[in-house]
User: What shape does this take?
Amino acid sequence: MTTAEAAGELEFAPPGPGFWEQDPVHFPRAMTRYWTEVHPAAFARGTADFASFYGMLIGGLAMGYVNGIGYKAVLPPPEEEIPRRFQRAEEVFAAKLWRAQLREWDELYKPAAIARHRELQAVDADALSDDELVEYLGRCRDHHAAMITQHMRNTASAVVPTGDFLAHVGDWTGLPPAELLGLMRGASPVSAGASSELERLIAAVGADPNAQELLASDGDPGATLNALASREGETGAAMTAYLELVGNRLLDGFDISEPSALELPDQLLRAMRTAVAAGVEDTDVEAKIADVRSRVAAEHQDSFDELSAKRGSCTACGTSAASTATSGRPGSCAAQCWRPAGESRRQEGSRNPSTCWTPDSTRCARSSKEPTVRPPMSSPHVRSTAGRTPRRTRRGRWGRRHRRRPIRRPCRRRSHG
Assistant: This one.
């Protein structure tokens, strides 16, 4: 045991050889042990797949976790594959292969993923025996890992054609990428949460004055959700379908310790109010596209039309893959089995689940008596801003309160050496 370990301080050694950089955008806080064990391999498979498919001169990306903090590295491609990757890159742009990937996503992978999400969500974890619960958690974990891989595999289909658009139009017009990105506004409605279930809900509430009054009320948010879902007719059916789609989506990160939509009913209601009030957003993006087109030389305008006509389609593939990866929340299903399901299991003396997803390096988390919602940032380069947070509650179907199990606060002492 080192002096730092004896003192309860954390050491930050590189996750592996080479250059690693912290990823504070996706992972601003320490992640749970569950995430740090499930994510790296699934992430690596997905990024290796898209690098090979698109002929990129990288082998993929790697994620490593030190005391729960995420670090990223770019991996080199296998040397023997480099000539083939140049050839593949030419094939990708000549045939615009991202469009084929989009069709596969819409017609095959997305429906299959959502169906599997719903299958796992339909399981009543409270009714399972201990052995059945363990088996169910394993299925949730395996599906969660598969969705991480699927999401990363589709990421390039969003960024490659967008980069192609920016590169060509930037050369033709001299406009900066920031200005050209504004032409993407509204091109991918799914990025803003659009879905057939939301459209159905907007139409149902719009035709139901009593539902409009209820949605605008300032009563208990969970009770309001329950009341709307319990209404007779189309409003109740539309509300139930929408909550089944988005209720387990995470709102503040990717980890199983983060809150889902149903655990923050006030935010969910505000989003619904905004959607119902706004309807279809009216933007001036078409006028902006016409203005940019007027700056393109005549010999390039047909190419510009083709690029701009497809400007959002594959962005939808990448962002939809991201939302679908967390839509049914196989990871959230697992989290729900730990918290709040099975109060009787805890009373019977079962192992406290908070110790199961705390990184081993934060040993003192197991003895801390301060419950918090999630562990604070532990990086020596990022000051933790997480204060003491009250315990959250979760609502089931859609108004019943559940007490979430706390995640113990990890030791905040850290090494600066």
